[in-house]
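Hi all, a correction to my earlier message: I attached the wrong file for Pentatricopeptide repeat-containing protein. Here's the right sequence:
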Amino acid sequence: MLCLRHSLATFCIGLESVQFSKNSNRNIVQCGARGPRPRYPRVWKTKKRIGTISKSLKLVECIKGLSNVKEEVYGALDSFVAWDLEFPLITVKKALKTLENEKEWKRIVQVTKWMLSKGQGRTMGSYYTLLNALAEDGRLDEAEALWGTLFSENLESMPRIFFQRMISIYYHSDMHDKMFEIFADMEELGVRPNIPIVNMVGDVFKKLDMMDKYQKLNRKYPPQRWEYRYIKGKRIKVRAKYLGTTDDDDGEVSATDKEDDSDLKDHTDNPEITVDECIEVDNIPASSSFPCS
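and the right structure:
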């Protein structure tokens, strides 16, 4: 008789082959349904991220070789930020700082005006950068127009550094009348002048032989013996003559001043000592305020 049975080895191999094929199909279906879908990189995203420092240097190199034509500079700046999702404000600020260190005043004016025209960076720091660049570039009319606009809009909140800059501009330009007007505005608004402002106004009084006003100015705003500085995160009083010229003609520091300075360093190295215990104040009330220059 004809036997239709398979051998045991052949039957086992067949079961294994069927079981393997089922598992392979199951894995393929599970991977396609529940596995992670393939992700493709976005078109506007790059794998290599460029830092703000290198990007700001690239921006400076991009506009350095251009002419002073407004359309050319603005077009280069627009093409530089065209592919950014957000306005690169930090990059532009660092580029302005680099241009300021290189004394590229025309480029600073162009970049700052372009940034302000985009509605970005409208802060007092940006306006001060523009005012300083206009003054250094010799564009006094534009600097006065900018000062008038800022002063009218921020009458009671104008920072003292703007008054100091305008007084310095008029002082070096020998425009004493406008200098006195700004100083009178400071006194009317209650803004206390710092040491450089008092020195410039007093020097003009000396040049014009107004010794009575010079003496009155010194009585009203005497030179400060102490100023506040931040040393290791602590607000500490230091002697004001260390920050400028010394009282001695030879420029040497006396022994008592050296001892005070050494005591100051010892106290700042010890974190357990408070600010009030750090320096003894001689005949100065605790409620008196000294502005930081």
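Sorry for the mix-up. Residues 10-31, 242-293 have pLDDT under 50 and may be disordered.
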